[in-house]
Task: inverse folding
């Protein structure tokens, strides 16, 4: 088994390639700060705050954004969020799942679970998966949720994993997690649900059989995130032990084996995101040192090679999400950054910094908005959903202009014209090597 595992461990920091134009030196990275979040007393749950039109001042900036809605929760903190085509779902320490209508956050209702606070939530198709304080996962049918009085919802529960039987059998149950279930992912083709936990393990559940079909110790620390490549079935996990690992099933009936370990920093890795297209596959990881490392998959060998990292956040990167060629990152520094990748040369540029929260941004989700009757046919809208430790949920509309790619010279000109938002694009080593070899020819 060990011969099939490739471990890539790098202790030295990678070379940094960046441009800095008309910008002051950023403060040095330090240990994560403690957020001072003040909860206004007297607020009813989910008080709607004013939504100022925060727009980017530079006319040459590629992205312009404004805040559509800002909601404040007075007695709980949002721990997770998920979106589908109709709703925004949030889980919190109050044991409630709240549903909001897209995109203006009109309240649709909520339902409360008796099994402790909700740590992870996943919306997939017609179902919703949630993890709870009893270390179990529940699946709900959200197609036709029954609405009761006072905006209370009653979805149909499909299953509980592992299934709760009797008190004595529950004590002997070895299929369940022994600590918080921190992340969820689903293989939509084979109907497999993956759960990662603070007990250092990953479990695989076959939904058709309602049973655990595989369980393995994935890391030496808490498992913080799981993402799946729906094209080839690869499973990616990250942990507080500072590693990112790639797992694969050789055959359907065999358990998962470790194929590669990616370690490029000693800091804990908090989040993962995968950006896949027909021509490229990129893996992104956000860590507590404020960096976003990314790996590019080789087309022939299938190996993931470290291609660089994105620098801009001052504190820990807590969440990542990808939409097409864009990467969104939420940080402990209370900001959201939107990066854009050019698949022709793997060049990344930070297009805009959204600064609207007063505490660490803990959860992110994003989706392209369906344009109807838009005057500018070259522009589309990106809807960004963010939840923070400051007990607020915000919805942002970002105007995205389509182009053939993000040329590095154009991006640098855009940065030079910027007066408010500091941007720090980072060139990947692979891009630099291509340019060096190109100039030698």
Result:
């Amino acid at each position: 088994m060990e011969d099939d595992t490739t471990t890539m461990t790098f202790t030295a920091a990678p070379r940094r390639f960046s441009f800095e134009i008309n910008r002051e030196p950023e403060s040095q990275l330090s240990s994560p700060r403690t957020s001072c979040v003040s909860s206004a007393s007297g607020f009813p749950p989910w008080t709607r705050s004013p939504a100022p039109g925060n727009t980017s001042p530079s006319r040459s900036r590629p992205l312009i954004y404004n805040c559509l809605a800002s909601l404040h929760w007075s007695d709980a903190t949002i721990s997770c969020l998920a979106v589908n085509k109709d709703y925004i779902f949030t889980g919190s320490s109050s044991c409630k799942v709240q549903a909001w209508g897209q995109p203006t956050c009109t309240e649709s209702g909520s339902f409360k679970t008796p099994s402790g606070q909700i740590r992870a939530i996943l919306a997939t198709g017609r179902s919703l998966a949630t993890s709870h304080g009893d270390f179990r996962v529940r699946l709900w049918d959200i197609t036709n949720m029954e609405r009761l009085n006072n905006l209370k919802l009653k979805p149909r529960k499909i299953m509980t994993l592992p299934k709760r039987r009797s008190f004595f059998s529950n004590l002997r149950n070895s299929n369940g997690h022994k600590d918080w279930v921190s992340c969820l992912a689903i293989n939509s083709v084979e109907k497999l649900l993956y759960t990662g936990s603070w007990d250092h393990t990953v479990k695989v559940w076959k939904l058709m059989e309602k049973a655990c079909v595989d369980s393995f110790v994935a890391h030496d620390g808490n498992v913080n995130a799981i993402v799946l490549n729906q094209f080839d079935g690869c499973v990616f996990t990250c942990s507080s032990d500072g590693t990112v690992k790639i797992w694969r099933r050789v055959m359907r009936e065999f358990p998962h084996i470790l194929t590669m370990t990616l370690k490029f920093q000693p800091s804990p890795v908090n989040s993962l995101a995968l950006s896949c297209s027909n021509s490229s596959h990129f893996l992104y990881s956000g860590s507590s040192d404020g960096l976003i490392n990314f790996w590019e998959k080789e087309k022939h060998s299938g190996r993931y090679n470290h291609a660089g990292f994105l620098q801009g956040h001052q504190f820990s990167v807590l969440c990542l999400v990808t939409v097409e060629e864009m990467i969104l990152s939420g940080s402990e520094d209370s900001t959201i950054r939107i990066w854009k990748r050019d698949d022709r040369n793997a060049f990344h540029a930070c297009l805009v910094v959204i600064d609207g929260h007063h505490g660490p941004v803990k959860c992110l989700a994003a989706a392209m908005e369906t344009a109807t009757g838009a005057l500018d046919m070259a522009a589309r809208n990106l809807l960004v959903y963010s939840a923070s430790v400051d007990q607020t949920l915000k919805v942002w509309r970002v105007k995205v202009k389509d182009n053939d790619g993000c040329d590095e010279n154009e991006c640098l000109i855009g940065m030079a014209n910027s007066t408010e938002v500091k941007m720090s694009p980072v060139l990947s080593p692979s891009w630099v090597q291509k340019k060096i070899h190109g100039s030698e020819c």
In short: The chain has a mean pLDDT of 77. DSSP finds three helices and 32 strands in the chain. The CA atoms of residues 371 and 380 lie 7 Å apart. The helical segments are 167-171, 408-417, 429-440.
